[in-house]
Amino acid sequence: MAAEITGRTRPTKLKKQQQRTNNKRKRDDVDIETLEAQVEELDPKATQTNFSDLPLSGPTMEGLKSASFTTLTDIQSKAISLALKGNDILGAAKTGSGKTLAFLVPVIENLYRSQCVGADAGLGAMVIAPTRELAFQIFDVLCKIGRYHNIAAGVVAGGKSFKEEADALARMNIVVCTPGRILQHLSQTAAFSVDNLRMLVLDEADRILDMGFSKDVDAIIEYLPPDRQTLLFSATQTKKVGDLARLSLKDPEYVSVHEKATASTPQNLKQNYIVVPLSQKLDTLWSFITEKSSKHSKILVFLSSTKQVRFVYEAFRHMQPGIPLLHLHGRQKQSVRLDTVDRFRRAKFSCLFATDVVARGVDFPAVDWVVQVDGPEDADTYIHRVGRTARYEREGRAVMFLDPSEEEGMLKRLEAKRVPIERINVRAKKQTSIKNQLQGMCFQDPQLKYLGQKAFITYTKGLHVQKDREVYDLQKYDLEGYAASLGLSGAPRIQFHKADAEEAKRRKNASRSEALADDSDDEDGAVKEKNAVRTKYDRMFERRNQDVLAEHYAKIVGNEDDVEDGAEDEDLFDVKRRIPIDEDVQSLDEDDEGEEIEGPATNGDPTARTINISGASQPLVLDSKRREKLLKSKKKLLKLKDKGSKIVFDDDGTAHQIYELEDEEAFRARGAIDEQRRQFVDAEAERVREADQLDKVAAKEKKKAKREKRKQREREAEGADEEGRVAVGGDKDAMANFIADAGVGSEDEDDEGGEEQPRKKARKWFQRDLPVEEEEVGREIETFDELEAEAAKLLR
Ligand SMILES: Nc1ncnc2c1ncn2[C@@H]1O[C@H](COP(=O)(O)OP(=O)(O)OP(=O)(O)O)[C@@H](O)[C@H]1O
């Protein structure tokens, strides 16, 4: 019965649906004809005030109304008319002035009027943005104003499965994308056709057409039909003839609404700078965000690299400034990035540390302050960064920290771009120093120290390859002071090869751009990585970074899901890798189970901790295979090492030398000197004896556990042989489970995943060069006394 009812109703339903579609088409046809006529008559020079003054379709008007867009901004008023009439456009207007609608409205309307919408119409428009964040934002606006249209749109910006994107692309009428990812689809997705494409839009066009993306864009253009309309928009748009030729623009209209304005930045934006030495920038930043009024603000802080962002975020987070902190950089997973953007968008009070990945286009509502702790690469970047505040009629403030050496050059650059900026000073009594706190934190947490070192290195390298030497001159910075301000005990050494300077500069430029390209196209990056030739050094340092940072991520970054710490900036130079030696010791420690480099010298005080400080960080230079080998031998490494000095911290965190001279009077008051000496020697001898006993017991237990495990394996193997076969996957897992269940030491599990084979006995430097079998295999030297005895025997 039910089937019958369904059988009877289905054709009726379909018929009605068909009827509705036909009626709509007729209405649309009439609508489209009327619209075409109105667009034909439209005078692009006339000034329109409202969207309703423009010949726009019903669904678009409804979409605009539901998103509360009624009045046109200047750029919208000028550009939309021209674009509706099919002109190519170079659009320039200040940040936050509504350029997104200026290109999205014509895109929707032109496709609608040419009936390039719906499932079979194919791809009609491509909107390219330099970053994922921006691509998703444009897509959101498109969804808002296009919701009443029968248009299929989507984002293709990486971070999702390629296949998923390829399937979706086949149905899209409008795609919002990043350059690298769309190029990948153009070249790899067979079913992806752009033959019907009518419109190409480049948002942040100057950025997309610059060095970092140029190759991708040129390749994309090759795929697109030449007969199309092209719209280019940016707050820092140029009329570069070369770009126009590359994009085959036809008689483009240059729409620059603020060209004659006295300032190139928004009117409601108050801009200041402070002169602060590099070594005090972090102090100043801390003082700023912990100010009472800042705690009730939304602050966006720009730093120059991923490493800076990570370090400042981690350090400040632990110091609890009293304002929610967020951080964003291009090495995070897409989901994390989008989540952070969303959280900052919704936040009322928050401080976001970010790289230039959000410098352009991203529309965070109601940002109160933009703080540029690290200076911008150029004046255009400055304009885009500060443009994250004071958007669409809102007020905003921006402050930039300048090292004294940067002031003159930067002001010249900004003046040339019509940026009104004034100097202000920090009140001395408001300035707090966090140097000691950071130093303490770095001592306590090697991972933070490691991040600090990386931040220092990346920053310094960044300065070295800055193209504008008049502003950024590496020689003029107090780098030792800067290292100290990061909590480091000395400036890590970096060696720049003169011969590589040009190449480094080129790569730096590319990297700045590619960092963003990367930000947009992480997967592309991964593809490149895969094909790249990897040297021994690469592999070694990748391993090392994983060792050092794996724990760090788990511990301090938590579940943030950062993408693995690639050699983001390291690859800029062919520098000799210099690693402060205590870092190496640490990473080797992690590899070499059970051996300790620095004994726990607690100086009799059980609450005191000992930290090895490699004084001026005498770094080890890895410049040959021999040295690479050396790294693997901890003992040899220690020989090379400037041992540094040991200090001990008491409960108050005050550092003491390990042997500090006591006040003589107090010492004598405690009794006869000989008696005191005897007591001390006895106590120390007792302590060493006890430690010795414990060592022996531990070593024996360890050996016993290993032996048991080996025997267990052998028994299992024999069992398997008897049965004649072992199901490789399942039984292996079962074995691993069994070993774990049987409670064999976790150390063994670490041993190459429990795949331990009977090992040859490791040779010691003092052993005779005999086959292992001939040695007293059963007797291993376990204590220092035994070692001494053995050495004495050899000497005799
Ligand atoms: N006609 C309008 N009426 C009201 N609000 C608008 C209008 N046009 C744009 N806006 C709002 O202004 C803000 C800035 O718009 P948009 O992001 O398009 O600026 P932009 O010029 O592209 O800036 P940027 O150069 O930084 O990319 C957005 O929040 C947007 O919603």
UniProtKB/TrEMBL annotation:
Locations listed in the record: Nucleus, Nucleolus
Pfam families from the UniProt entry: CTE_SPB4, DEAD, Helicase_C
GO biological process per UniProt: rRNA processing
Sequence motif Q motif, location on chain: 49-77
Function: RNA helicase.
Keyword set, alphabetical order: ATP-binding, Helicase, Hydrolase, Nucleotide-binding, Nucleus, Ribosome biogenesis, RNA-binding, rRNA processing
InterPro entries, per the entry: DEAD/DEAH_box_helicase_dom, Helicase_ATP-bd, Helicase_C-like, P-loop_NTPase, RNA-helicase_DEAD-box_CS, RNA_helicase_DEAD_Q_motif, SPB4-like_CTE
Primary residence: nucleus
Biased composition (Acidic residues): 585-598, 746-755
Reaction catalysis annotation: ATP + H2O = ADP + phosphate + H(+)
Region annotation (Disordered) ranges: 1-31, 500-530, 585-625, 684-779
DEAD-box RNA helicase Q domain sequence ranges: 49-77
Lineage per the UniProt record: Eukaryota, Fungi, Dikarya, Ascomycota, Pezizomycotina
Swiss-Prot/TrEMBL domain comment: The Q motif is unique to and characteristic of the DEAD box family of RNA helicases and controls ATP binding and hydrolysis.
Compositional bias segments (type: Basic residues): 10-25, 701-710
Domain spans labelled Helicase C-terminal: 281-432
Enzyme Commission code(s) on record: 3.6.4.13
Domain Helicase ATP-binding: 80-255
Biased composition (Basic and acidic residues): 684-700, 711-734
Lineage top rank: taxon: Eukaryota
GO MF annotation list: ATP binding; hydrolase activity; RNA binding; RNA helicase activity
Protein's UniProt name: ATP-dependent RNA helicase
Gene3D superfamilies xrefs: P-loop containing nucleotide triphosphate hydrolases (3.40.50.300)
GO cellular component: nucleolus
Organism of provenance: Recurvomyces mirabilis
